[in-house]
What we know:
Blueprint: E1 15-20, H1 29-40, H2 42-52, E2 65-66, H3 68-74, H4 78-90, E3 94-101, E4 104-111, H5 117-122, H6 124-146, H7 164-167, H8 172-176, H9 180-188, H10 206-212, H11 220-225, H12 227-237, H13 241-250, E5 252-253, E6 258-259, H14 261-272, H15 296-307, H16 310-319, H17 327-340, H18 344-357, H19 365-377, H20 383-396, H21 426-430, H22 435-455
Parallel strand pairs: 1-4
Antiparallel strand pairs: 1-2, 3-4, 5-6
Amino acid sequence: MAMTAQEDEFNPQAGFLVTAASDFVNFNDRVFTSFYQPVLGPTAFGLFYALRAQLIFQPTLADRRLQANIIRQLNAGTSQLARALHRLEAVGMVQTYRGQDGQGTFFVYQLQTTLTPAAFIEDDLLSVLLLEAVGDSHFKQLVKEARRYQLASSPSLENVSHHFLDEFHVANKSLVKTPTTIKNAREQTNVDQHPQLGAGQSDFDWPTLFQLVKKQPVMKKDLSAARQLIEVEHQLYGIDESTMAKLVLQAVDLADNHFNPAKFKRIVASRYQQVGHQAPPATANQSASSPVKLTAKDRQLLQSAADYAPVEFLQGLKEQTGGFVSANERHILTHLVNDVKLDSAVINILSWYIIADLDNANLKASFVDAIANSWIKAGVKDAPGALQELKNFQEQRGKQRTSKGRFAYRRPQVEEQMPKWSKTDTQQLNKKASPEALKEVQAMLAKRKGRKGGDQ
């Protein structure tokens, strides 16, 4: 099990082409910089513009180039670029297609347009990540930017706009039967749908939530509309239905009894960034497929991994060393939940291994991806399986357990070739010089002293 290097996904020798979706003409650099960059990070941000620079008019497979060109341009490692590409795919800015022909494997990267600022704010996944990346104050400024051309107040207005057929006349036969020229044009120009972001499956009990807020002043249809947002927060922080109901009620606008998604995001982000928050117990998802020989400490670790959501578990590990969960680490955990779709308990074992067992200060994306990748290949599906995989790795390396029961990953000792003089017998080194040797040394010193006096 390779634990120190990620699989080379961004192969330098593979070919690539860059295309763009039909609505890419609407791409907005300002939106991409202000809204997407804080979520993506600098490497993914640079990769997107490097790919955009490769756009050519009506590309064909003969126009492919090697991915080594992108690697040299960005001066980044293949694991970094693989991670950056995954981020661009996750936020819906790139769709990746793979092909094979006589010249080998090639990839087609289709660039997507940016969402509007308002649509970005309305997206539950993207807005949550943006809020955590930039903080409450800057997030509010971006919300103002999204509404910069709208009325500050919302008066009651009546839409009196005219419809298309009120002003333009189109022959009835053309409406009934589409002209051949238009049909052909539509067949050649497919309208691409913007990638949908998903949060994966959720075990959240919606009937219980509705029952808990049934007698409270909140619109049920508002909660249904915010279903994805609530499930994302539930998966990321392990919020149970009872706690979720309290958070939902705090986000209700008293003026109209409507649920305010933006306010809800701020409340959750503020509460779960506090040090020492106690997460509610979650149901353990462990199978008996992994034959782990459990020690008392193993059982305690597995129970803790099952009882906490990933962010809260990591926060608990950080508290032991006086640290805190950074925004980048929250992104990494969100990636493991949404994209890799690891079980929460497995993610917690991974965090424990890196922070507690290896004594690292922070989670690093490349190292996390390397471990997650190897676990998926090994068929790890639950926390016992993850722990077994760690023990297998430790056994393969021939390491010993430390006195505290933690896995020892000691640096190999290097035996340097010592000079011959270091091997001289101790008695020989301590033997006193003879009178003849002393006279010879004194003569050499007197001669050297005389030379120095003559130089002056």
